[in-house]
Amino acid sequence: MASVGQEVGVVEATVGIVEAMDLPVVPEASDDLGYFFKAHYGTLLFQSSPDFGSSTSPGWHESFVLDVLDKTMPLRIELYGALNDGASFVGGLHVDLAQQEDTDMWLRLAPSGQVHVRLRFTKRSVPRISAEEVAILAVMGKGAYGQVHKGFFDGQVVAIKTMHVTNPTAFAAELLQVQALKSPYIVPIYGVMDGPSTHPKVVAEHVEAGSLAQLLTLGRLQHYNKLQLAADVASGVAYLHERSIVHGELRPSNVFVTSDGRAQLSDIHFPSAQLVHFDTALSYPWPYAAPEILLGAQVHKAGDVYAVGVLLVALNTESVPFAVHRGNPFPAIHRVLHDGDRPLCRADCDAWYADIATACMATDVDARPPAADVAAQLSAALPVVTPVPVIDGIGDAKWYCPRPGAMPLVGDVGRFTAGVGVQIAVLPAATFSKSRRLGAGPYGYVEAFKYGDTTVAVKTYVGHPTEFEQAVTTMALFVDVPSIVRLLGVVQVDTPRPQMVMEYMDLGALRRYLDIERRGRRNRITVHKIDVAHAVATALGHVHARNIVHRNVNSLSVLLNERREVKLTNFILARSVENPPLTQGAGTMFWMAPEVIVGGVYSVAADIYSFGVLLTELDTLEPPFGALRQSHFITLDEVSRAVRRPEVRPNCESWYRDIAERCMAQDPSARPTAAELVELFAAQRPTSSSRFQPSRKRREAST
């Protein structure tokens, strides 16, 4: 069993109300007078049963336990005489808990009477669990705060969550408060491993049926299951709010379902822990965040109620709210923030249910109902039946059937037809010898291989055949353009993991070069910012001449080599601007043009805006808005309204500043074309000696 840690604790008070005497007689009471007491502490309430037949000296001998969360908050005890149609107040007092000393005494009531009270104080800590007590079984995935493992502890399967903590002492106190929760609506926490530290492991109950997110994907929930789950979620939030705890991370992946179809809440917000899984605005589960939270407000109770409303819609529709905006959520976020757009229940949904969801998602924080009211309304609508388990498993459909893999490619080089008039060499897989991993992204990973005596970069697409074909088709159009990374061929095109073979750029991404310069370290080469700008503009000129939008121009899509060559890559998002018009946003967050952010029709001018942001990177060495400390959603909203733009250095050349600002013009038609940019930077190349500005550390070292 776990041993009790000593590093942090919460004082727990056991309060015993033994008996009372000298109470006043209640005139309206019957001959068989009964007295009872109520004890109030914050939002907590304990009420005894009446003691009949003891005249004015009742005895209860009842006790209850509370956490002393605030030493300045007194315990209020009130005594009542029971009446046929209610109760009559007979006396009360405040008990000071600040001293935290054990007490056993009679205390005087006001206006009259006495009550016998016993107080016992103990310090409770989160149980400490040693590594020897836990067997790690497998990786389950990633939660909001870190990686989650499946393990075995004390004879049962558990979930082990590795946290990333900024303040171990504060985290221990927060965890203690959550671990003390005892409710059928909350996933229990058993203890903590590796604490106190910056990476403690929280050991919690493992719920076998999985998360609500998984069950929604399966679409097998019957009506009463969904209503029961909705009532359980609201009840769990109400339970937390009664104890002044805000969940703060409410969404389907943090709602777990037991084998009998009941919901339990997990991953309650820890202010001292870092969100490591949602490290960008694109990956953050924004549909469940209230508008004020998207705009930077701290988590609060009304924000939880908003999330309950969105969950009600998700349960009703059995789908992810705003799912069509997965590629670029910012147009939908803009409408949520400024137009009051909200997810809607199905057209055939019961009106009362839809009304509750709508009320929960009110823009006015004060107009949202308390979680307790929502729970009461949903619980009252439950049918009086015994739910059947959610998970049956008998006769389930085969939801995913991977296509059979093709035989390995061997022998002579073939041809892969990637589009009309486009053919690429199919290279034999056996001729490659692996070197090392270069990086990974949402569509796959990139490795360096030896192909004969030549080092090449091979990008493997995992489960994305359409994106593979799109990228190959586009890059094949530019194999003779020196400023675009050359596509050499493809490998294993008929397998679930097709590969692109490209020329190898040994110095990697421009962003890496800029970071080394910014930190005052020495790069292997030195390149001029004007040369980089000219090369990228030249590449965009070729791309735009074919009416193609790159849609991902940034310092990670520009590669360098030791020959000082600068080349554009990363064509996975590239699309033609011809039929149909482009409206679906895509790209990297702070490089996206305003028209892309709001979901408008856009053209090659969107790339020019991104190029303008790249110019600020070349001048400052910093990523856009790198020093800005506010919500990403606020920043994107400000960009969409021309309130904010990335900036160059104060002492930047005026002509360079002018080009960057013109590229980032709000009106796409006011931006220069790629061909014009090529001429502008070509005119500066012969006379300019402007290099990347050295970092402060390097400037100081040279003086």
Helix and strand arrangement:
Blueprint: E1 3-4, E2 10-21, E3 34-41, E4 44-47, E5 51-52, E6 59-67, E7 75-83, E8 86-95, E9 103-108, E10 110-111, E11 114-124, E12 127-128, E13 134-143, E14 146-153, E15 156-162, H1 168-179, E16 189-193, E17 201-205, H2 212-218, H3 223-242, E18 255-257, E19 263-265, H4 291-294, H5 301-317, H6 330-338, H7 351-360, H8 371-380, E20 414-419, E21 422-426, E22 432-441, E23 444-451, E24 454-461, H9 465-476, E25 487-491, E26 499-503, E27 508-509, H10 510-518, H11 529-545, E28 548-549, E29 558-560, E30 566-568, E31 575-576, H12 594-597, H13 605-620, H14 632-640, H15 654-663, H16 674-684, H17 696-701
Antiparallel strand pairs: 1-12, 2-6, 2-11, 3-4, 3-5, 3-7, 7-8, 8-10, 9-11, 13-14, 14-15, 15-17, 16-17, 18-19, 20-21, 22-23, 23-24, 24-26, 25-26, 27-29, 28-31, 29-30
Helix pairs in contact: 3-5, 3-8, 5-7, 11-13, 11-16, 13-15
GO molecular function: ATP binding; protein serine/threonine kinase activity
Domain Protein kinase: 134-385, 432-688
Keywords: Kinase, Transferase
Q: Which overall shape is indicated by the principal axes computed on the Cα atoms?
A: elongated
Number of helices: 17
CATH class of the largest domain: Mainly Alpha
Q: What is the SS-derived class? A: alpha+beta
Average pLDDT, all residues: 81
Task: Write down the CATH topology of the largest domain.
Answer: Transferase(Phosphotransferase), domain 1
Work out the radius of gyration: 32 Å
Beta-strand content: 25-35%
Number of extended strands: 31
- The CATH architecture of the largest domain is Orthogonal Bundle
| Structural domains: how many | 4
Distance between the termini: 63 Å
Low-confidence blocks of residues = 1-8, 276-281, 385-414, 693-703
CATH homologous superfamily of the largest domain? Transferase(Phosphotransferase) domain 1
Question: For the report, how would you describe the main beta sheet?
Answer: 6 strands, antiparallel
GO molecular function: ATP binding; protein serine/threonine kinase activity
Pfam family, one: PK_Tyr_Ser-Thr
Domain Protein kinase: 134-385, 432-688
Keywords: Kinase, Transferase
